[in-house]
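Lab notebook, page 48
Experiment: co-folding of the full assembly
Goal: obtain a model of how the components sit together before planning crosslinking
Operator: M.T.
Materials (sequences as entered):
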Amino acid sequence: AQRVTQPEKLLSVFKGAPVELKCNYSYSGSPELFWYVQYSRQRLQLLLRHISRESIKGFTADLNKGETSFHLKKPFAQEEDSAMYYCALSPDRGSTLGRLYFGRGTQLTVWP
Amino acid sequence: DVKVTQSSRYLVKRTGEKVFLECVQDMDHENMFWYRQDPGLGLRLIYFSYDVKMKEKGDIPEGYSVSREKKERFSLILESASTNQTSMYLCASSLPAGWNEQFFGPGTRLTVL
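Observation: model returned without errors.
Model output:
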């Protein structure tokens, strides 16, 4: 069974501080990992995905298969980063079904 | 530039009513999904569809059904609404294959009294 765990429900940092949102997963195959973000009063949207190897809005995420983690990091947090962040897993990159398993989310607050 | 739309932003229904939530996407996506979003529980998949008239149960299908008669439209039906179905409902669509981005609608906040 697939499972995505985000151990922190709430996370607060000050502006300019580094931030790391943790995500651990359990799956024995070759999953695809994503981070989705929901800003206040906006729809849920993709922030980044492992396969793209992108850095979006200064965020990066490294897939650590040994530790089965996909932590989201940013060296200098900004107030506009305050949002709900969801880690998600797709069990099989090639599957046409394309369903995702989401973690429970981490609410990030960046204080001025 | 709206790509996924949901029929209602807010909806209030009474216990026992039949409720229809509509979702339309204009991106010609094969896959469509219905989630419910609850604080502390994240997003949970109710049903999804990978083609017209095709559907698969998600993790919490009990009390719900779906309909996909046209590619662009995916409906969620609450056969007999109950108070524990009060929630935010999100629709999403994507191209096939697991690495593709899901595009989400704005959500429907349903309250069942």
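Interpretation: Chain B is about 0% helix and 55% strand.
Next step: discuss with group before ordering constructs.
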